Amino acid sequence: MATLELRSINKSFRGADGAVMVIERLSMQANAGEFVAIIGPSGSGKSTLFNIIAGLEMPDSGAVIIDGVDVTGRRGQVAYMPQRDALLPWRSIIENAVLATIVQRGDVAAATREARALLDDFGLTGWGDARPAMLSGGMRQRAALLRTVLWHRPIMLLDEPFGALDALTRAQLQQWLLGLWHRLDRTILLVTHDIDEALLLADRVYALTPRPARIALEVAVDLPRPRSYAVVADPAFARLKLRLQQVLMVEKTAA
């Protein structure tokens, strides 16, 4: 497990009418083993923020700190699962899962054995040699998460991993992810549009303003663990949800 700290991140892009500020003076942290959710309106810079953490984009200023070390702009420090599963259609599920090891010229045989040993935990027993087109949407997301886990990085970034799924499958995978996180001992950052999802999964939630993204509210989710989906009926859950709704609606109106 590792700690993550973002220090006063600023990011802009060049537009037709000049520079467009996307992220402004944004600071946040995730403690070792913590599950942190980031929620905000569409276009608020959440995916750009993840790209900066992953070293895929450079901020204009500010720093990404992991365990006290400045890793700004350095790739390979975190495991990153983007919004789409991005499974290679010509490769089997196992081959997709060990792709990072293949690219890094690591021990593919050992990685393959590990991936096969994890198929049951990921609800993919019997599907290791199948192509992605043969899997349901939920199974594809679990396969993509297996690949992310096999990167063996102490910090995982999940960018709306269940956003494209139907409500029932989404609820099932949220519950599954909670159980998986307890076994993995990883620090997880999750981007989502769904307040219920953020509160169900996370220890802490950051609500962002519309572009440029700043921290509008930080909420500690002091609901007991382990959690089941029944927690959404808890009055404490409802109070936290209302706080987030009020802030996000105010920010949306102000925008």
Would you mind describing this structure in some detail?
- The structure is a single chain.
- It is built from 8 helices and 10 strands.
- The chain has helices at residues 46-53, 93-97, 99-103, 108-118, 137-149, 167-184, 195-201, 235-254; strands spanning 4-15, 18-30, 35-39, 61-66, 69-70, 79-81, 155-159, 187-192, 204-208, 215-220.
- The model has no long low-confidence stretch (mean pLDDT 90).
Which key terms come to mind for this protein?
single chain; 255 residues; alpha/beta; globular
| Strands, total number | 10
Instruction: Give Rg in angstroms.
Output: 18 Å
Average pLDDT, all residues: 90
* Tally of alpha and pi helices: 8
Largest sheet: 6 strands, mixed
Element order: H for helix, E for strand: EEEHEEEHHHHEHEHEEH
Q: Record the strand order, biggest sheet.
A: 6-7-8-3-9-10
Q: Separation of termini? A: 37 Å
| Low-confidence spans | none
Overall, the morphology is globular
Estimate what percentage of residues fall within beta strands: 15-25%
* Class computed from helices, strands and strand pairing: alpha/beta
Query: Helix fraction?
Result: 25-40%
Condensed summary:
With 255 residues, the protein is of the alpha/beta class.
Q: What is the secondary structure topology, with strand pairs?
A:
Blueprint: E1 4-15, E2 18-30, E3 35-39, H1 46-53, E4 61-66, E5 69-70, E6 79-81, H2 93-97, H3 99-103, H4 108-118, H5 137-149, E7 155-159, H6 167-184, E8 187-192, H7 195-201, E9 204-208, E10 215-220, H8 235-254
Parallel strand pairs: 3-8, 3-9, 6-7, 7-8
Antiparallel strand pairs: 1-2, 1-4, 4-5, 9-10
